[in-house]
Amino acid sequence: MAGQVKIAGIEISHHRLPLDPPFNASWDTQPRRSFDATIVRVHTDAGLTGIASGDAMLGFAGHEHLFVGQDALAIERHWRILDNIQFHWGRPWPLDLALWDLAGKITGQPVWRLLGGRNGTVKAYASSGTLRAPAELADAAERYLGLGFPALKIRFHRGDWRADIAALEAVRARVGAKLDLMVDCNQGWRMSWDAYGSWSLKDALQVGRELERLGVYWMEEPLHRGDREGMRRLRDALDVRIAGGEMTRELYEFRDLVAEGCLDVIQPDAALVGGITGLRRVAAMAEAHNLVFTPHTWTNGIGVLANAHLVAGVAEVPFLEFPFDPPEWSLERRDFAMAEPLRVDGRGEIALGEAPGLGFALAEDLLARTRVG
Ligand SMILES: [Mg+2]
Predict the structure, then answer these.
(1) Residues 6+ apart with CB under 8 A from 287
(2) Which residues are within 5 Å of ligand 1 (an ion), measured at CB?
(3) Which residues belong to CATH 3.30.390.10 in the chain?
(4) Which H or E run contains 95?
(5) For residue 368, is pLDDT > 60?
(6) Is the pLDDT of residue 31 over 90?
C-alpha cells in the first residue's frame, strides 16, 4: 500500500461474559462470576482497522486526539505517548498491540515477521488456574500430556505449602519426566480486596528446596515483586530457576531486576505492560544477559496471541504460557471475544501462520450481546 496511512479514530468497547459456574482462580480469594474483555479498534483513513485486547484502558478516554491524524506506522512515536499516559493514568498497552495488528494489515505481513521473523510457531505450556486435589491434578496432568503439551504450570495456594507439595508429588509420580513442571507461588501481588502478605525469604527457601527435589523447571513469584534483595538471595541459594515480573509495571524495573541478578526467567505481559514495542526491548535485555524471556499471558486469547507473535518475532523461548484448565477455564471462556479460539496443535505448539497482523477475527455477535460499555 503506497503512501502514509493515517489514524482516523480509536474505538474502545467493554464486554462481560457471565461465568456460571464461577471460576475459582487459585490466586483470587473471590469466585469469578464474570470475565471482562476490552476491545480496542484503531480505524484508519485507508479503511483498515487494527484490533487488540488486554487491559481495561482505564483513563484512556480523552487522549484519542494524541493519535488521530498521525502516521499509523510511527509505532515508536506512539509508544512514547502511551508510556506517558500509563504514568499519569491506567495501562493503555492494548493500543500498542492494535497498532501492531494494523501495521501487519497495512503491510500484508503477520506481526511475527515484522518483528524479526524468527519462527512462525511457538511451543506452549499449559498454565492451570485452579487448585485440585492431588489425584485429580495428576489426572489433569495426564490429559495435558495427551494433548501434546511439553510442560505444565501448577498453582501453590492451598494455605499450607506442604499440601501444595503433596499435589506436586502426585503429578510427578504420575507423569515422571514426560512433562516439565513449573510452580507458580503467586506471591508477587494481591487482588484489590486481599489484605494478607507474601512469603518471607525463609518460607520461599523451604519451598524452593522441595521444588528442587521434585525437579521443577521454574519457581514463579516466590516473593513480593519489590523484594529484589530477597529474589537475588533466593536465586543464589537455589538451583531451580526463579521467575517473575508478570505485573511489574515500569520497564526500568526490569533493568534493575536484571542488573541485580534477581531472576532467571523474565515474564512481562505485552497486553498489560509495555506493549509489544516495550517488551521487545526487555526481550533483548534478557538475551544479552543469557536469561529466559517468556511472557505471562493470563488475559484472553488475543493477549496470548500478541505475546506469541512477540516471542516468535524476536526471542527464543522454551515455551510460552497458554492459560487452559478445563472445564473451569476453557478455551470458549478465555477466548469468547474471538471468532475462533486460539488452539495448540497436537505437539503443543501455537502455529501463527501468514495472515496479516495478529491473525484473528472478533466474535462480533457475542461481543454485541455481552457489551457493557
Ligand atoms: Mg504467574
Answers:
(1) 293, 315, 316
(2) 184, 246
(3) 7-108
(4) helix 94-107
(5) yes
(6) yes
**Among candidates 298, 283, 277, 272, which has minimal Cα distance to 220?**
298
| Amino acid identity at 21 | P
Distance of CA 67 from the midpoint of ligand 1 (Å):
33
pLDDT tier at 3, thresholds 50, 70, 90: confident
The rounded Å distance from CA 299 to ligand 1 centre is 12
Read off the pLDDT of residues 57-69 as tens digits, 9 standing for 90 and up: 999 999 999 999 9
Cα dihedral 362/364/368/369 (nearest 10): -90
Which residues have C-beta within 8 Å of that of residue 323, sequence separation ≥ 6?
127, 129, 297, 298, 304, 329, 334
CA 40 to CA 57: how far, in whole Å?
A: 9
What fold, for 7-108?
A: Enolase-like; domain 1 (3.30.390)
Q: 198 CA distance to ligand 1 centroid (A)?
A: 14
Buried b (16+ CB within 10 A) or exposed e, 148-159: ebbbbbbbbbbe
Expressed in angstroms and rounded, the spacing between residue 344 Cα and the centre of ligand 1 is 20
Q: How far is the CA of 115 from the centre of ligand 1 (A)?
A: 25
Rounded distance between C-alpha atoms, residue 135 and residue 128, angstroms: 15
Using CA of residue 324, residue 329, residue 330, residue 335, what is the dihedral sign? negative
**Residue for grid cell 500430556:** 145
Q: If you measure from the C-alpha of residue 370 to the centroid of ligand 1, how many angstroms do you get, rounded to a whole number?
A: 28
Q: How far apart are CA 171 and CA 281, in angstroms?
A: 36
Taking the centre of ligand 1 as the mean of its atom positions, its distance from the CA of residue 246, in whole angstroms, is 6
Could you say which architecture CATH assigns to the domain 114-351? Alpha-Beta Barrel (3.20)
Quickly state the pLDDT bin for 2 (edges 50, 70, 90). low
The three-state secondary structure class of 168 is: helix
pLDDT digits (tens, 9 = 90+) for 296-305: 999 999 999 9
The ranges of the chain annotated as CATH 3.20.20.120 are: 114-351
Strand extents, DSSP E, 24-127: 32-44, 49-53, 121-127
44 CA distance to ligand 1 centroid (A)? 36
